[in-house]
């Protein structure tokens, strides 16, 4: 036995080194010592399951490009393959009926594809060789793979161009652009162009480092937006740490002439900001200050009577959505308040209140902010917010996503502040839009209950009613506001109808909020009020 006790039966003998320790000191009957075996003469035996170690992958052509390379013509090809951002005519995630995939928590929408392949035209990897067959001669297999890794056309057509590009700093711009164009054309002719997301992210980072402008800027922003829409590509953005270079490039954009590029660039920031791992990178690289500066610039443009274009409105949609996603970062709420961004958002809302997507995004942002008491005080300190939010209830009466969030915001603001309760009821006459909303939502929900469709899940109208009745309960805590609510027959009648007509078992949360509201109102209702005169109806409520 050649290897004694140390022999491993699952490995061929050739795997181990052979030395003097492997030979016995015993002598044969002839008393003549045997000659040691020559290790080089040992032949490999065929062993199933043993695969040759693959050679080092061929370096991609994108890695061979020098840092000073100008890819003007290459990037211009990208515009034919990247996707176009739809015009902002509807609210994200369902306000106009178009449902998008959702990520993370409530109100955290993200327009993404699951795993759609990209068709962008890029500088590819060299073609990989086909898998190598395992033969008895492992050395022959390695030689065969080496010879097939570089096809003839690669040696004759591609390698010279790559060598020329490696000397790019010695070429004038015209020669360099011609070389890049020729390389791209020949790769396309051979169908070697690769749409690997990893390669595309690396290519985009190279293009960004060149501080491109014009069409090249637009195309690289389109490419990044297309990649960011696929959630599985988030790790690529994180590994390449592309948020810093991207924000640096966007800071150099002109707000008007580069508005289309900003739509895709800020849209990329919005998509990346919904990822918990990428969000700290964006915050660290100054995403909040960039968005603050961009919003301020657009508001200044409006003040000098520059008519906002569709692209600018689309930028504002992406900007407000990016701010909302960034708020998931633990420390950003305080930074947003201290940065003076809330007054800018109030001005933006006053200018674009009729725009459903902008209003929706700002309502999402305020819904998150008003969960904190210090942020509630900051929102109330902007005097235009309360009347704007009340006006939004009337202006967007058919957009349930806006209505439920506005009621939620107002409910948060009136949780502990008597001044806000009084101001809403008596100064801004909030009961008129609130009573109209209560009547319309209750009528829709009663019809839904009669049809038997209210068994399994909450409807948009029920969500509105829950938030609206909570707001009325908070308003009723303040004496003057409570008396005003108790004297409104539409509101009191609607509350009694909720208890009388909707089953408690199916509407438990709404019923609890309604009982709390009626309890608060009973302290402020006059003796001859509509509420006290109809209290007997409560005993007839269905259980």
Automatic annotation (TrEMBL):
Basic and acidic residues bias: start-end ranges: 97-114
Biased composition (Polar residues): 1-12, 75-84
GO biological process: cilium organization
Annotated segments matching region Disordered: 1-39, 75-152
Signal peptide start and end residues: none
InterPro entries per the UniProt record, alphabetical: ARM-like (IPR011989), ARM-type_fold (IPR016024), Armadillo (IPR000225), ARMC2 (IPR038905)
Coiled coil (residue ranges): none
The protein, known as: Armadillo repeat-containing protein 2
Organism: Geodia barretti (Barrett's horny sponge)
